[in-house]
UniProtKB/TrEMBL annotation:
Keywords: Membrane, Transmembrane, Transmembrane helix. This is Phage holin family protein. The chain crosses the membrane at residues 26-46, 53-77, 89-111. InterPro entries: Phage_holin_4_2.
Amino acid sequence: MRLVLTWLINAAALLAVPYLMHSVDVTSIGAALVAALVLGLVNTLIRPVLLLLTLPVTVLSLGLFILVINGFMFWLVAQWVDGFHVDSFWSAMGGAILYSVISWALSTLLLKNADGNS
């Protein structure tokens, strides 16, 4: 149940990003649900490989290169999913940051209460 709730929270966060950043577009709730699912799969399967391959650059940049990787993942999913569009790579980086912050905030508010913790 928690996995489904997390997926719905991520889809809601993805729907909120275009209201804050006009260079990101999500055309429907269905597109947001598919994009959130694909983002989760990409972050689970591809992101660890990229983090390992770019470890020297990440260390030299004191971890800031992870923002580039997150932006790339966001942009990559926008290329694959119909109804989810990002104008440029820089828009993808900004969108990924906004998406992460919104998703974190919603997860903190909703999942904390779903566990029965106050």
